[in-house]
Design goal:
Layout: E1 5-8, H1 17-29, H2 43-46, H3 51-61, H4 64-68, H5 76-85, E2 89-94, H6 101-110, E3 117-120, E4 142-148, H7 151-160, E5 162-168, E6 184-186, H8 189-198
Parallel strand pairs: 1-2, 1-4, 2-3, 4-5, 5-6
The structure holds magnesium ion (MG).
């Protein structure tokens, strides 16, 4: 049962990022958008930002002050500590820009979150940085469990890696039809934790 290798996304899986983004859009631009109505992964669409607003918004929300204040998602940290204690290898794979590394590490330290690795991968084709690993660089890996909120990344992982993929339910992935895929939808960390406990098989 022990020694699983687990891929975990950070934003909207470990950290309540998009709820904070909705608040920031209200504060910066007066946008009154409800989290539950954010049905697009594209913030330009879900927060109704024009190109100029989007650019300044993205700069602001990658500032250390914003990242530092993100709330952890309920039961996530406690679950990771249990996994760490039972010998699992926790690999954090984020789509944040590498410039946010220090703020990200500080957030993880402040919350005492255990992990073995932290990678910055241009999962969404957003960074325009040739030196950054891309989604395609994850092909061929295997994880016993992978947890994502991006439907696109979840599908990519299920098709191109040997991983059991959990899609963390969020308004922007609800129209994703998972029938015919091996991806399971999970609604909270208690469910993720239960899933990990039930499945004693590993790929290795
Ligand atoms: Mg995410």
């Amino acid at each position: 049962m022990s020694g699983m290798k687990i891929y975990i996304d950070i934003d909207d899986v470990l950290a309540e990022t998009t709820r904070a983004l909705a608040r920031a859009a209200r504060d910066f631009f007066g946008k009154k958008v409800l989290f539950e109505d954010m049905s697009s992964f594209d913030l330009r669409v879900s927060l109704q930002l024009n190109a100029d607003e989007y650019d300044s918004f993205m700069l602001a929300v990658h500032e250390p002050a914003f990242l530092k204040n993100l709330e952890p998602i309920e039961n996530a940290i406690q679950t990771l500590r249990e996994w760490d204690g039972s010998g699992d290898r926790i690999e954090l794979v984020t789509g944040r820009p590498p410039s946010s590394r220090q703020a990200t590490v500080e957030w993880l330290e402040n919350h005492d979150i255990p992990y073995q690795s932290l990678e910055f991968v241009d999962k969404y084709g957003r960074q325009h940085d040739e030196t950054m690993p891309k989604l395609s660089d994850l092909a061929g890996r295997h994880y016993d469990l992978a947890i994502e909120d991006s439907a696109t990344v979840a599908v990519y992982l299920s098709e191109n890696t040997r991983s059991r993929v959990l899609l963390f339910d969020r308004p922007w992935n609800r129209d994703m039809d998972l029938s015919g895929t091996s991806i399971s939808r999970v609604f909270d960390w208690l469910e993720v934790s239960k899933d990990r406990t039930l499945d004693g098989t590993t790929w290795s």
